[in-house]
Amino acid sequence: MRTLNLGILAHVDAGKTSLTERLLYAAGVIDEVGSVDDGSTRTDTLELERQRGITIRSAVVSFAIDDVTVNLIDTPGHPDFIAEVERVLSVLDGAVLVVSAVEGVQSQTRVLMRTLQRLGIPTLIFVNKLDRAGAQYERTLDGIAEKLTPAAVSMGAVRDPGTRGAGFVPYHGGDAGFLDRLLDVLADSDESLLAAYVRDETAVSYRRLRRALVTKAGQALAHPVYFGSAITGAGVDSLTAGIREFLPAAQGDGDAPVSGTVFKVERGPAGEKVAYVRMFAGTLRTRDRLQFGRGVEGRVTAIRVFDRGTAVPRASVVAGEIGMLSGLGDVQIGDAIGVARTTEGHHFAPPTLETVVAPRDPADKGALHVALTQLAEQDPLINLRQDDSRQEVYVSLYGEVQKEVIQATLASDFGLDVEFRETTTIHVERPAGTGEAGEVLRAKTHTNVTGASSPTSTNPFPATLGLRIEPAAPGWGTTVRLDVAVRLVPVYIYKTVDAFVEQMTEYVRETLREGLFSWQVTDYTVTVTDCGYRAPGTTAADFRKLTPLVLMAALQQAGTVVCRPIHRFRLEAPAETLGALLPVLARVEAIPRTPELRGVSCVLEGDIPAARVHELQQQVPAATRGEGVLEVEFDRYEPAGGATPSRPRTDYNPLDRKEYLLHVMRRV
Fold this sequence. Notes:
By secondary structure, the chain is of the alpha+beta class. It contains 17 helices and 35 strands. It folds into four domains: 2-246, Rossmann fold (3-Layer(aba) Sandwich); 259-338, Translation factors (Elongation Factor Tu (Ef-tu), domain 3, Beta Barrel); 353-426, 2-Layer Sandwich (Alpha-Beta Plaits), CATH 3.30.70.870; 565-639, Alpha-Beta Plaits (2-Layer Sandwich), CATH 3.30.70. Helix 6 (176-187) crosses helix 7. It is globular and about 85 Å long.
C-alpha cells in the first residue's frame, strides 16, 4: 500500500478536530464520532485539551482509503501553539486546510495558507460548518479566491446551506460553469491547455482537464475546494475521494541510506523518550544503531508504526512511514535521523514574549526546572533561560493562552503550583558596525590558583583565537567563515576544517544568545581571523571557553542596535466606526495606512509594536460594536528608539573578564 502523510490545519474553532473524527468514522476506525465539546475525540488526548476544547499538541492517527494508508496529523489552530504546526509542516505530503462557512477566511487561515504555498505542499480546502446558521457559499468561495489563492476550484455545489439538511453535490463533466472555471485556473500554469482551447473548444475534454487538475493539485498550483459539515458528514465522502485523487503519496527509496526527521517527542509511561520520526529514505530496524542530531549515536530499542487508528509494534519502519522510536535518550525535536536533509529553517516567526515562571513553594525550584525542561523537549520554542544568580527561570511565549496552558500543565502533570511575572517583549540585537578582537597563545602560559594569569600572558587558555564580527542583512541569521591558513586550524582536535567551522558556529551562537544588552544577537557574519594551538595540550574545551571572551570583546567594539518586534495588522470594521478606531490605534502606537472603503466597511492595514498587540485585541470589540475583524502577524524587527531596553544577564558575563574567568576556571 502507498502512504500519505496528511496534515489537517485551520484557524482555531474551524472544526479540524471534528473533521478528523468524521474521517476516522467514515474509514471504520472508530465506531462513533467523538465530540470536542464533550472531550471525547480521538486526537485530543491531553486532559487540558478535553477541558478547553482546543488542540494543544499535534496527534497522529491512521486510516485507509482504498490502497492508500493515510497518516493524519491533527494540529493546533490557536496561534499561541503555532510551533506545533511548524514542526508538522516538514513531514507532510499534503494538507487539508479547513475554513468555516460561517466565519469565512480568518487570520490564522491566511498565515497557514501562505506558508503551505511557500513550501509547495499540495493542499485541498474543506469549507466546514455548512449546516450552521449563517453559512455562506458564494461569499466564502470569494473570500478563498481573494484572501487565500486565486487557484481555488470549487468541486461542487451546495444545497440548503445553513440548515441541518445542508449537502454537497459534486460537479461532473456536463457542468459548463465548472469546466470554464477549471480551464481558467489550469490555463494559468499550463499554456498547452489554453492553446488547445483557443484552437478548438472540443479539443479540451473533461477527462483531460481532470488529469491536468490532478497534476496541478499535486504540484500545489491548484487547490480543489469542498464544502460540507464534519458534524453531519455532508461532503466528507467527496473530500475523502479528493484526498485519494489529488494528494500525492509519499516518495522514498526503502533501500537507500536511512534519512528521517523527528517532529515530535513525548515521554512514555516510564518517563522514557519516544520520538516521532517521518522516514524519507531507507529502512530502520529494531536494534539498529544510528546517528541523529549533531553526531549523537543511539540504538533503537522498539518501533511502533501507525496502522488503522493506532500505533502497533513493528520490526521496522520504511521510507514514507511515520514511526515511534524508543531508545534514543538524547533525541530532540528537529533532529535529523541518519542522513540529514537540506531543509528550510523556521516557517513561522519566533515567540516575541517572555515571562518568569516561579513556584509558589520555594522548595519546588528544582522540580520546576526539571518539569520545564521536559516541556521544552516537546516545544523547543519555549526556549528556557536559567538565571542562576537570581534563581529564576524564563520561558518564551507566543501569547497569554500559552501561559495559561503551561500553568495548567505544570499543575496537572507535575503537581506544581506556579505563578508568572508580567509578560515582557523579547527584543534582539544587531551589530551596529564591525569589531575585531583576539587572544594569543604564549610560549608559556600559567594560571595560578586564583584564576589570574601569570605576567607573561593574559590568556589562560592554550589556544589562539581572533574573531571579527560585522553586520549582515536582516534575516541573514548566523554565518561563520575562515580567513586563516588551513595549517593553523586544529584538525587534530576537530578532524576536519569543516568540523572546526561547524563547532565554532555552535560556540558563536551560544555566546551570542546574550549580547551587550542581554538580548540575542542576530544577522551577523563572524570571521575567524587568527587561530593557533599547542599539540598535545590544547582541547576543544579551550576554544569553547575562549570564544565568549574574544567574541564579546569584538561585539563591544562593534556596538549593537536593540530592535523591537513589529507586527503587521489588518482590521476590517464598519466604516462608521472609523472615527472611534483611529484614537484607539494611536494609543497603542499603531501606525495605520490610508483606510480603504468597501461599501459599508473599511479596511485598515498598518504596523504595531508586538508589545501593544494584546491591548489592541482587547479594545477592538468595543470600538467596533463587536463587528471588527483583526488579523495580526509578525513582520520584522526595527530599532527600538528611546531608552535602550535591556534585561538581566543569565550567563557568566564575558564582558566582565574577571567574573567570567573565575567561573570557567572553576576557582570561585
